[in-house]
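Case study: AI-2E family transporter.
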Amino acid sequence: MKFFDIDKKIWTYIIGIAILVVCILNLDKVGQTIGVIWNAVKVLVFGGMIAYVLNLVMNRIEKLLEKSKNKFVLKIKRVISLLASLCCVALIIYFVLAIVIPTLGQAGQVLIDVLPQYFNDTIKFLSNLFENNPHIVEMINGLEINWKEMIDQTLSFLGNGLGNVLGSTFNMVNIVVNSVFNTILSIIFAIYVLLDKERFIRLYHRLGDLYLGKDRKDKLTSALKIINQSFGSFIGGQCIEATILGTLCATGMYLLNMPYPLMIGVLVGLINIIPMIGAYIGGAIGMFMVFTVDPMMSLGFLVYLCILQQFESNVIYPRVVGSSVGLPGIYVMMTVVVFGSLAGIPGMFLGIPTVASIYKLAKIHIQNKEKELETKKLESKTSVKN
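Here is what the predicted structure looks like once written out:
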């Protein structure tokens, strides 16, 4: 029997290595196949992600409804909690767009209006600075820019470039229609999953009992609970931390009489959801917005945001996100660098809870192994004494 067991293991390794070699030699076809599969399932994947995020809100609302003594409310608590969670997310999105988009357009118009004046002031400053060198002054004064023509050319270039890109791949209408249709399908799938999520839980337990056995299923269930806890804590912690940071940023800007406090506070908080680099992106956008009104004040905003970021990194983040996720800082940085290079911003966002889950599972595995070794040592010492 041992001989046949060894043969089975050897054949398993041989087949696995052969499949790996074939895949490496045909990377183009493998990539195309993966692309076809991804296009087929991406709506379901995005729907599952939407369902997971909505479920974080929905569970809390449903627990509140369970305290009600009204039988009708208890009967339709799932529907009420789902509708309430959808309304909450929709209101948040509407609130952000209603604040950010009009203000961005206003800031862009202000920049177009004041940029020529900033250019003229810079020319005067440089002319006064090099007044002892007439050749440099003459060259500086010779710099002229037709701002209207430059803006028209820039807008035309962007429009033509976007049109060429869209025309070379898909028609713009088709892209918009497909995106809207896929989004609607993802939301519908998420709703179906949330309304009947117990069915999927029962299916998991049935398949686990049939094909895994009790011990393996219990281990897998424990691992899934840890993964769920890591992702839930990370998403919830990031949202709370973003809300706190955005509120502090907007409040400080309002007290310091800086322009666009509400809009910049919302943007800084929202973009700060992206780990590590979100703060820098939000700060750059905020500094640009303040620059359109007062260039010197934009430096004050930068100093204020740096102080706020230090407070956020050393006080808010460790308490709100770090303790809940349970991943050391050095691993967070390594995760952001590796996953960011592999998958960009989605990789940064999903990488931290993924690595946190692996870290926790590895920690539990190592602790169990250490306990087994200690038990064996005690048993060996006991047997020697006997």
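For the exam, be able to explain this: Residues 197-366 form one domain.
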